[in-house]
# Entry
Amino acid sequence: AYAEYVCVPHRQVFPRFPWMDDVDGASLAIDYLTAFVCLSVLGSLHSDDTVLIHGAHNSIGVAAIHLARILEAQIIGTAPAQHHENLREQGLAHAIDPFVTDYQVAVRDLTKGEGVALIMNPYLDMHWRMNYQLLAPAGRLVNYVGASALGQEPAAWKQRLMALLGAPAYTPARLQEDNKAVSYTHLRAHE
# Structure
């Protein structure tokens, strides 16, 4: 999606829809693939599961809403309030503004205290522990990094390093005891 020309087998190519511009076409490859990997491959989302999508207003979040709707999952998303109406039109059942509302309390209320089956988290910050606590038994926390979050400037690297150093240590024994899973992904071009 970042190259002007690519060479791939013909079975991996399909025409863009007539209404799509270059940006829309590229988002299919990046945003929807990332959302698919998070929801289906790593997240193993099934119908009637409840998913919490952090950053539901970003392009990967919207793609995840579309795919979760197809899978008939219950969808909760966090985003600033100015995006809620549009996100509901996209299929988000429950929108939470994390800058105004304690999303942990809201999610517990919405799930009647049971927690969620899957959380998609694009943020490298202190919310990892809070997200882990919101998982239902056998719940999955999928942390992902979108391409836009990976700047090359030193401040971005320092911020990521500080977030990783503050992340909880998930040991196999703890995950097994808690009956939860944590995974990380970053889809990018490999050279």
About this structure: The longest helix spans residues 22-42. Helices lie at 22-42, 59-70, 84-90, 103-110, 127-133, 154-165, 172-178.
